[in-house]
Amino acid sequence: MGTFKLPDLGEGLAEAEILEWHVKPGDHVLVDQPMVSVETAKAVVEVPVPYSGTVTVLHGEVGDIVATGSPLIDFDSGTVVGSMPVTSEEEYVDSAKIGRARGGVAARNRAVPMARALARRFGLDLAEIAGSGPGGLIKLDDVLAHAQMDAAPAPAASQSQARPEAGQRALAVPAGATAEPLRGARRAMAHSMTLSRAQIPLSTVCDDADIHGWSQRGDYMLRLIRAMISAWRAEPALNAWYDPASNSRILLKHIDLAIAVDTPGGLIVPVLRNIHDKTPEELRAAIAARKYAAHQRSTTPEDLRDFTLMLSNFGTLAGRYGIPLVVPPAVAILGAGKVRKDAVAVGDSVAAHRRMPLSLSFDHRCITGGEACRFLAAVIGDLEHPE
Amino acid sequence: MVEAIAMAHGWEMQHDPSVVVIGQDVGANGGVFRATAGLQARFGADRVQDTPLAEATIAGMSVGMAAHGLKPVAEIQFMGFMYPALDQIVNHMSRMRYRTRGRLTCPVVIRTPHGGGIHAPEHHSESTETLLCHIPGIRVVCPSSPARAYGLLLAAIRDPDPVMFLEPVRLYRAMRQEVSDDGQALPLDHCFILREGSDVTIVTWGAMTIETLRAVVELESQGISAEVIDLATLSPIDGETILASVAKTGRLVIVHEAARNVGVGAEIAALVAEHGLYDLHAPVQRVAGFDTIMPLFRLEHDYIPCVRRIVDAAQLTLTD
Q1: Tell me: the pLDDT tens digits for A135-144?
Q2: What span, in angstroms and rounded, lies between the C-alpha atoms of B106 and B61?
Q3: Looking at domain A2-76, does it have CATH number 2.40.50.100?
Q4: pLDDT in tens, A328-372
Q5: Closest to A116 (Cβ–Cβ): which among B34, B187, B281?
Q6: How many CA atoms lie within 13 A of A123 on its CB side?
Q7: Which domains does chain B have, with CATH numbers?
Q8: pTM score over 0.90
Q9: ipTM, 2 decimals?
Q10: With respect to CATH, is domain A188-383 assigned 1.10.10.10?
Q11: Which of A191, A220, B64, B300 has its CA 20 to 30 A from that of A305?
Q12: Are B23 and B77 in contact (CB under 8 A)?
């Protein structure tokens, strides 16, 4: 409740006469609307409503003289604390529906948050991804599978061929340089080496074969092949294929040896078939034919396929030891480094002997260190034979 | 709204002689905001009792009256004065049914003004519903229009268990709405869908429904269709309505006047995280008061979430 007293109307006058009330008890009034007209000795003054609220009592009738400071009107402003925002004249339109509208709402594109975020990053539309989770929930794997399919390279390349590795920033090409897409052999190398690094827990063991005792200079390639055949007979485990899907290995009864051939167009790895059945002459001819084809870029896909063991005679260029990479499903590769004279202990003295450095890499998922070392020892044993 | 509240009191006192009204100034004065205006003249001083300025007593009396078959409707003059009553609410009112193994219930309604916006002192203006929502055994209700105030207050009085009835103070006289005095209650424990939409769900309650509905008009002008859910019963939460809406829109904004930290909005966000995570297209946004004392009244409109903040939050959920 609030009582409003007749204010000093600004002329220092002690009283005023009520001429007309513009409001009556029960009226809801807003601040500043006309309330009462009073006449002072000098003028007629309009007094506006001082508070919003409801008029409860008028202290005086038309014609009454009211002294300044005497109660003029009472309001109920609706509160004793603060100032209440008053009714807007507009009718409040309220079309509320009681909740729990069940059913009828089809969830759209439900997705695990990480899957949703990944799809956004790949620019994929979730609506196009089939969800494998309960109720069609789209999971991370679904997005990955979808991305893989959509990102398949041009029809010429096989579907599983390598794509730029996820996680690597796109390179800015420096001025003066151009980006050259990898093609052919280089592209195949990118793929097979990526596959190798991604899949194979590789281990490499290195040693040297002392070939000082060779009676003639000899053909390194042929000697290496002979040594590998000999080692295979001693330790067959390295001539095998490994299948991670079924976690099984196939020990092979023949050796199809892949040999690395360096060409200007890239690394070509043609396969020599059934090397264990071949005479040295046949082998020499086969190697020459494969190398020629590689340089002529006429190696057929058949000549690249289904190798069982690998050999890289990189020492013809440079390098002692290396970590050759095995390409699945094969499980081992022998690398031969540059032959040179080393100071070796012979009895209690030092002598200069020609030695061939060897690096044997193997897939440690299916080959034990013991098998690898036995194989390497057999290779060395054969190589060190004078003939 | 305040007239609708008085009207609901009147209807229920007329039709149920066990309903009594108690509180400071509720009788001769008709309540600080006139929510009980005219009741004492109509029903007598036995049924509309002025009490001392003693909130613990008001709540304690309510428990005793309820235990003896009355249905007290008590007024706490401001939510900021509720705290002395919490002892009675937590230790007696909320667990009467539990403690007596269901032999007694506690059909009490405690009404109190909620929130700011009327230039009252700061401890008259806070929104501390979280304190009440954390208490098991009581309902917490907050209407957002005269019609819902009428219908929900009737439901609260008729409910056999205690209900905290929070009345948004700046809505008391802020809107004009025709409410028919027909004794029709509205259901407790249900949200109200104030506006249907397809792009984003906005859950709010009390006076913030007004700012939210204004924000929705602005969002609409930007081509964004928002669904507005008035929570209405703050505890227990009607999760089904919210989850159904989020499944439809995939986006959720929660708007409340109360401080953000451990607000009821956090509970709603947790609910959706637990049961609706896979429907969400974007992180949940909360628009709330700040984690500070409600400021003195010159600054209270900087504290209370404004239309701009609600629009921004809704846009954020729609920005990839």
Answers
A1: 888 988 888 8
A2: 12
A3: yes
A4: 889 999 999 999 999 999 889 999 999 999 999 999 999 999 999
A5: B281
A6: 2
A7: 2-171 (3.40.50.970), 192-317 (3.40.50.920)
A8: no
A9: 0.74
A10: no
A11: A220
A12: yes
